[in-house]
Amino acid sequence: MPTNPVPLGFVFRSRAKEEKAPADKALADSKVTRDPQAPKGRPTPKRSEAQTQRRSVATTPTTRKEAAKRQRDDRRTQMERQRQALASGDERYLPVRDKGPVRRFARDFVDSRFCVAEFFLPMAVVILVMSMLRVGALQNIALLLWLVVIVLIVLDSIGIAIRMRKQLAQRFPDQPTKGAVRYALMRTLQMRRLRLPKPQVKRGERP
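User: That's the sequence. What structure does it adopt?
Assistant: Structure tokens below.
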């Protein structure tokens, strides 16, 4: 039986489709942009990775002037964080001398009680005014008050140091507590409202 001849138009259309398919594929591949930072022979990085790389390159200082400006900005940011931490008591950004549970306990131990030393400045002003008056009796009283204030501060500081050393030994037996007592005594010399970091406990509250 004679076979049905294949139309020539069908043959040409099939060949045209086969030739067009690789050409379209090559054209599509050529339109895919390769990230210039991707090394040859390696896959193109994701958009997020490419943006991160470009951002890191853009933020890296290229000159000494830019590096100095960056350091000043970082220092200013760090100082602002410390200032806010001193007001709020945020442990993350406190200065090194104020960090740690031992120093926090020392502050709370002082802030939870009345200390004679915190009234030194107002009493010193009163005594100074009395000593400036040209009245012999008042000058003698002022001198006596100086002695009384100094003795009270010394006795109160000794009591605070003894009690605090005992508390530190009980609460932090495995942690270094060197300098904590001196840190607390220096805090007693400041008026409560002027202390930094700000007090986090009330008077009479157990630290």
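The first helix runs from residue 8 to 31.
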